[in-house]
């Protein structure tokens, strides 16, 4: 990732900036992929809407992780569900 791309991400709105910071930290640690996904990202991974993701949680199929009030989903669990 180029320095200008990093600078643009850091000047972006708060949520985008937080995602960028997490991605940068993961890259610096050598992690190839993030471990958690947002509700929208989970929906894209499962090829469904955010509301379907909510229904999967309500049905007990998907188990969210709460981090400081933010709801995230384990990528490993999403991959298993997508198969």
Provide a brief overview of the structure:
The protein is an alpha+beta fold and 83 residues long. 59% of the residues lie in helices and 12% in strands.
Mind explaining what this structure looks like?
This protein has a 3-stranded antiparallel sheet. The chain has 2 domains: 1-33, no CATH class; 36-82, Multidrug-efflux Transporter Regulator, Chain: A, Domain 2. With 83 residues, the chain is an alpha+beta fold. The model has no long low-confidence stretch (mean pLDDT 79). The protein starts with a helix and ends with a helix. The protein is 59% helix and 12% strand.
Architecture blueprint of SSEs:
Elements: H1 3-10, H2 14-29, E1 36-37, H3 39-46, H4 50-58, E2 65-67, E3 70-74, H5 75-82
Antiparallel strand pairs: 1-3, 2-3
**What percentage of the residues does DSSP assign to strands (E)?**
5-15%
String of helices and strands: HHEHHEEH
How far apart, in Å, are the first and last alpha carbons?
Answer: 31 Å
Tally of domains: 2
How is the CATH topology of the largest domain named?
Answer: Multidrug-efflux Transporter Regulator, Chain: A, Domain 2
CATH class of the largest domain: Mainly Alpha
Q: Could you list the spans in which at least 5 consecutive residues all have pLDDT below 50?
A: none
Structural class category: alpha+beta
Keywords:
single chain, 83 residues, alpha+beta, Multidrug-efflux Transporter Regulator, Chain: A, Domain 2, 2 domains, 3-stranded antiparallel beta sheet, 5 helices, 12% strand, elongated
């Amino acid at each position: 990732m180029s320095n200008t791309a990093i600078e643009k991400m850091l000047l972006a709105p708060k949520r985008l900036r937080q995602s960028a910071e997490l991605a940068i930290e993961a890259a610096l640690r050598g992690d190839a992929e993030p471990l958690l996904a947002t509700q929208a990202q989970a929906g894209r991974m499962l090829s469904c809407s955010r509301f379907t993701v909510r229904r999967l949680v309500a049905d007990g199929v998907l188990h969210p992780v709460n981090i400081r009030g933010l709801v995230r989903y384990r990528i490993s669990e999403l991959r298993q569900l997508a198969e």
